Sequence to fold (934 residues):
Amino acid sequence: MLRKLRTVFENSFHLGFGNRHATQGRLAHQDNDQIFQFLVRNTKQGIYWTDENGRILGCNDSICDLLGYSRDELTQMVVADIDSQITVDSHQDLLRKLSQHPSVTFQTQPRRKDGKHVTMELTVTRLVFDDRVYLCTFSREIDLERQLRNQVLEALATGMPLSEILTLIVQLAEKTRNRMLGSILLVDESGCFRHAAATRLPRAFCEQIDGSKPGPNVGLFRSVVFNQTGVSLAEFPQNPIWESYLKLAEIAGVKACWSQPIFSARNKVLGTMAMYFLDPQVPTDHDKELMKTLALLAGIAIERARKNEQLLKNELRNRSLIQSSAATVWTSSPQGDFVDRQESWESYTGQPWEEHKGFGWSEMFHVDDRARLVFEWTEAIKKPGPFESHGRMWHAQSSCYRYFEVHAVPIIRNNQVIEWVGSTTDVHNRKIAENSLVRSRAILKQAQKVAHLGSWVWDFESDRVQWTDEFCRLHGFDLNDRKGDFNTLMKTVFIGDRTKIRKSIQHTLETGATSPMEYRILRHDGSMRTVLSKTKFEKDELGNNSGLIGTVLDVTDLRKTEQALRQSERQMRTITDSLPVMIAYIDTNYRYQFNNAMYELLYKKRRSDIIGRHVSELLGETVFQKVKHHFDSAFRGIATTYQQRIEVPNGQSQINEVRLLPDRNAEGVVVGVYTLIDDITKRQALEKEVLNIAAEEHRRIGQDLHDGTGQELTGLGMIADALLLSLSRKGAAEQPIAVKLARGIKRTLHQIRSLARGLNPVDISSEGLMSALTQMAEHVEDLYCINCRFICDSNVKLQDNQIATQLFRIAQEATTNAAKHGHAKNVSISLVDSKQEIILSVTDDGIGIHPAVEESRGMGLRTMNYRANAIGGHLQIGRRECGGTEVICKITLTNSDPLGMDPGRHKRQPHLSSPTQKVPSEPHFATVSDPDSE
Fold:
């Protein structure tokens, strides 16, 4: 038997000593059974042999030491007693394999006498001796923990995905035990469990566990994570923490479990490694150490995968950040040229690789910056170190040069620059903002100088005051010294105002209320200036008061101007109050802003009761609506004059002449109206009396000419006729002279009668005006050889000879102007009685009134206006739309018939047999100004 065993031993692959061929060489000369027996018994490799049924027939000392049994104990056992993995089925399978192969090698975990399992590699050889079959087994203990660790580390080294590595760990763990199911659960960001590897567990079991959270009594693996310790249980029904999972465990068929938390390098729980058994079992110390090793490897794999994932995220984030930012990242050779295509450079500048390689990139700089940048870069290469510069670079997308900043650092290895890494950042918007800020500061500085406005900042923490240049100039400080304390500031303040300032600032600090302060400054040159200061609290990041910000405005000239204005206002008010004319200023809202003393005297109201009130409140709504169109014209920029009869508080009526003069601002916009009101009641009465006297004197002179001179000339004419008759009878040579004398006397008599009729044209009878106008029309036809007609559809009877005379004079002036200046061919004179007013109109078809004449108001126009005002009428003169001029005079009738109208009006035929003509429609009239305004 030993000889056969020696043959098998010599052919074994797993001798624990020396090289097999060397041993054969030595034993070839020593066929000594004692030596071989010594070697078998003392080799470190365990050897035992069994019969065909697995009964141990013999063994060496090494296998006894490995399993903890004596030789006698082992020879009384079968292999299945020490190795539960070798069952009847597996033993028969082993015999079939040995019939086909000389030997079979596999791993198993027999149980030692002390109950511990040991991992061994077995090589089984089939022996036939004396027609009997024997199995010789060579065994050696292997380090399973190292083997598992090497496989996992190899997977990590090859870059295997995390899911595959965790699956490998579970599979390796499952190989260490029969009827064991493994799983690895990870804790996600929300703190819930998620299965990362579970190859053999039922899906329903995994789905029930997914989404749960760690807790002290909510399941084994969840309590493991919560308590961060390993836990093992023999059976589920015996522990209350599995109460909610009993049915699930029954479905999975598991009877026991142990779990090991998976920690990170910083002792943070990443998950748990759980092992479920189909049979009740308790882990040994070796099992626990193995699970810790696998959990450690799983933690390394998880952390590495998460770090790689984070690095990938960071890389993608940085890449996206670079792509989305205005920075261009580039690398160059130690000599500073581009040796590789710079995609970010090409994307920003649009310069292709063929152009930006080498030093071609410099062409993208602005021509004014190119030489400087290349020189600075060349100098930086000579002395490697951090490089910074700036300039303008072409931007393809916006098609313009944009400001940039460049930063670069050399990559040094073994004291040699191997490359440069840099970034070119677009700072165009920031540069523009900085330039704008600099410009704004310069403008602010200049504006402060122009406005004599200084500013200061008082920092409470340092108790220092900082001020601007204009502040220095106002207070007389040196421009080079812009800082000081509060006492330095107070030294320039007039001594009489220092207490006021200190109290005001103390009140501001205590209450937080700020208010303007006016004080005086005594400068070094002895001059006194008045300034107005305003302050505001400065806030820190927490919203607390950290200081005071103030402005100082030089108001010396302003105060002098205000004083001069007040003096001028007093003088102006004194002058206006002393005038007999009512003066007021009305804004565009029809409200009084100024009035003189005459206004107060007329309306019996104080100035405070007039200022701010609406015009309708003083005039009354009815009167205001009648005159509102005059104000509207003035607000449109047209100077207007009109007459107004008002009832004064003393119960009498008063006739006022109102002048509205537009007030324009610097842009020419009307912002108000000056109102000048003159009481012309007495003046109109006096003018009427003057006209009466003049009319009476005209009548007397005309009567004298008619009765005196006219009669005398009549007598002389009769004498001249008698003389002519006598000379003609005698045939005297003086007869032609007598003829001339008689004709001259008749012509002079005719002129005297015309002059007398002109001085007293209107008969004192009620129909005298109609008769006079008829005769005047005939006279104009004869005198100017034009067509002149008088039209009157009904009787217009005037008892007042003065009114009739003035109307005649107006008609006479208008027809004369039409014939002489208007070059008219047809003139129409119309007189109408409309029951409420008498209307006299003179129209012509001439060239029309010239705008310059209309604006200047010549003597004739002013005379007509004067005559109309004298009899209480309203005169309108304007150009007709169809050509020519139209003059209209209207006299309003009252119930008391002040004009002496005959109540017995009746229709009559026109004086002329020509077709009846109606009064033409009103043309566009020019407003008539006061005749005395020129």
Observations:
- The chain has a mean pLDDT of 78.
- The two ends are 163 Å apart (CA to CA).
- The first strand starts at residue 46 and ends at 51.
- Residues 681-730 form the longest helix (50 residues).
